[in-house]
Amino acid sequence: MQLHLHQTHHTIGDFNGVFDYIQDQAPIKSGLHLFPELFLTGYPLLDLCLQKGFIEKVLDLHKKLDTWAKQNLAKNDAMLLMGGLDYKFDDQGLPADIYNVIWAVDGNGMKRVYAKKLLPNYDIFDEEKYFTPGEDPGLLEWNDKRIGLLICEDMWHSTHHIQDPVKELWQSNPDLDLVVNLSASPYHLGKCEKRLARGREISHLFKAPFAYVNRVGGEDEILFDGDSFLTDGDGIIWRGKMWQEDSNTIELDQVATKSYLPLNAPSTIANTWESLFTPDLELASKPAQLSTLSEEKLDELTHALIFGLREYASKCRFKSYLVAVSGGIDSALVLALAKLAMLPDQTIEAVYMPGFYSASESYDFSAQLCDNLDVPMRHLPIKFTHSSLRNQFQDIFGQELTGLSDENIQSRLRGMLLYTRSNQNNAMVINTSNKSELAVGYSTQYGDSVGAISLLGDLYKTEVFALSNHINRRFNHLIPSGIIDRPPSAELREGQTDQQSLPPYERLDAILEGLLSYRMSVKELHNYGFDLEEVVKVHNLWQNSEYKRRQFCPIIKVKAKSFGFGYRVPICKK
Predict the structure, then answer these.
(1) Choosing from 49, 117, 152, 407, which is the catalytic residue?
(2) Each residue of 89-141: pLDDT tens digit?
(3) Which of 34, 140, 264, 315 has the fewest CB within 10 Å, making it most exposed?
């Protein structure tokens, strides 16, 4: 039997694009065709799957597919397994149950053959809010082949889940010819190898090839990397490309190696669901430290951020990027990534907006950076507007603009001017804040927090330095070394540096990783070697800054634990 794996790339709700893709395959080759989870609709859908207009289009697509299949597949020995939705309606015509399913499409039309059993309800996922878990046995018999069916989360064993679909399938159908998993699995650093390890484990368990088909795309904050694969025991028969559409055809009967391990249990501890969310913190060190990112992971991270920016800009129909440069490392890295992400029909512009406290070398470094990147830099000083506002506030309120209010007005002026320029040329503003600053509120609301998308919002400051150095090694020193070497500063008052307000980033980032990913208490962090007073300070800054993070722009997710909409805590708390 021929096995056709389709790693697809579509926008959510692009029903015409999905149907055109299927039609373009005609005449369909004989054999079994695998498409990703919710291929017919896109993922994640959130409340979109409840809207009547969306439901009508889903049902219309089903009718078109059913008719097309009967007309085009009746004489073909082919079956298409594709992810989609199955609606059950109440007496008022409202959806009573929605199932995340696998549709089998052949010459007889469309037939539901499996519904997802494990509905993730953590971090960025809330499938239990929308979907009803399935009870289908997960076995498809076709052309004398016994095929086991799973959808995404169903492949992961965990104490978190009541059910274990892999174990249930294995106990009831140990003698299978193939196990398939249709996925829409979000990306984070390190996840690709975990998926492959789990796939190999399932292949050894069933003593059969395991086919994993994942989607590609950027959906707001969430990235889908593809990286589909077919494994037979430890052997990798095929592995799809990352960050792009891909496909392959394999003759299934020729791949079996028969070199399976004698597994008699569905999962090992190393490949449980929980293992996907291991925080990057080396606890053996005193104090604990963030794990060092390897060159391979830094390269993967570079490609992920470039892909995420391209996807967001494309799907929001932007052709231009706009970045505020300051002579600091964050804006330099963002501009470099944006330049690397540019497509031939896109443009980019940098704006340098010096104030009273901007150092002369900030201009020099910004100009050198833009020259290296071949990006036009506009010089738009805020000194005169800042001075005028100082005078107005003195005249109207009888108070001088001093301290924090004077610092913040500078940042907000820059944000206002940046968006004014954005309105002029319809350019997408890219945010330049990092995770360290955002977590402790070291940013100005409606100032340096502005932007349509955040590239660095899931990266700590030390990781910003690591990625900047990596890009310089990889792309011939795009970022001037002076930018990387100078002490970080917001330049909002005379002689200001970040370390006057915050602990050194090496310690701050480790403390934040403990708080955000490990959910550690102040006491626990102190026990791992951190100064108690410093931990209390960081903890309080973090607790009191949620109102800023909540209003922040979408953050491209590259870590296991979300710091965007998957991170949900109250603003009002004691």
Answers:
(1) 152
(2) 999 999 999 999 999 999 999 999 999 999 998 889 999 999 999 999 999 99
(3) 264
